[in-house]
Amino acid sequence: MPEGPSIVILKEAVQPFIGKKVRYASGNTKKVDTSLFCGKTVIDFKSWGKHFLICFPDITIRIHFMLFGSYRINERKETSPRLGILFEDETELNFYACSVQLITEPLDAVYDWTADVMNEQWDEEKALNKLKQRPHMLACDALLDQNIFSGVGNIIKNEVLFRIRVHPESRIGAIPAEKIKELLVEAVRYSFQFLEWKMEFTLKQHWLAHNKSICPRDNVRFQRAYLGKFKRRSFFCTNCQVLYLKD
DNA sequence: TGGAATGTTGGAAC
DNA sequence: CGTTCCAACATTCC
Fold first, then answer.
1. Is the dihedral of CA A218, A243, A165, A206 positive or negative?
2. Do residues A172 and A135 touch, judged by C-beta distance below 8 A?
3. Nucleotides in chain C near protein beta carbons (<7 Å)
4. What is the DSSP letter of A23?
5. How far is the CA of A167 from the C1' of B9 (A)?
6. Which positions 71-90 on chain A have a beta carbon less than 7 angstroms from any atom of strand C?
7. Same domain, A143 and A229
8. pLDDT tens across A163-196, in order?
9. pTM for this structure?
10. Number of domains making up chain A
11. What is the pLDDT of residues A143-170, one digit of tens each?
């Protein structure tokens, strides 16, 4: 569920709910008083990376699906929803096992839209500058940094590094400028590719590195390790992915 | 079938 | 004060 492209799919799916008025909201969320939304009209749905945003005129609901979250549109699961919204026309949105938060400030004050790899305001130049400020950072950590590559998750990280042939433990400051450019371009390109494949239900079969045991380029066994400060699974080939270390 | 996983947060430890 | 580590959360899949 949770990487950026999946949230974009959700955002598209709920477009028909824009303009609908909430009849009743409930759920087992402890963070938010669901009665706040009753009678309010949805004016928009937005996303920032892995954040899904339900916008009302004065407040916004922020949903983060974490690792296990899920949703149903005009359907219900057996389990009780973390947040369920029933609209006046009897349609409904249900969210499960997710983090729910209320945002009262203007969204532009909360979110840097230029950091979201799937947003039309994505700014490669700004991302490049953020990378330049952290030369000591590992490539695998950089891709997972939501302030630089909002929406990128562990799958996208592994696929991007494999595609551009960069070892996950490479230091950002040691990677040649052309490779950094490739990193920036591929993070966006693969995210949209992920979106297409996910919609076709063919995402997994297109994985080249993530969850794979053999490198498809040279038939060598992939290394598998929990790398970087995030300690997330990395799949990488020491044959074709270059380790850049020196400055 | 137990363990691991597309993720983040908050607090402790250093 | 920054960083790093860890538990917690809670579901699905192999």
1. positive
2. yes
3. 3-5, 9-12
4. E
5. 29
6. 77, 79
7. yes
8. 999 999 999 999 999 999 999 999 999 999 999 9
9. 0.95
10. 2
11. 999 999 999 999 999 999 999 999 999 9
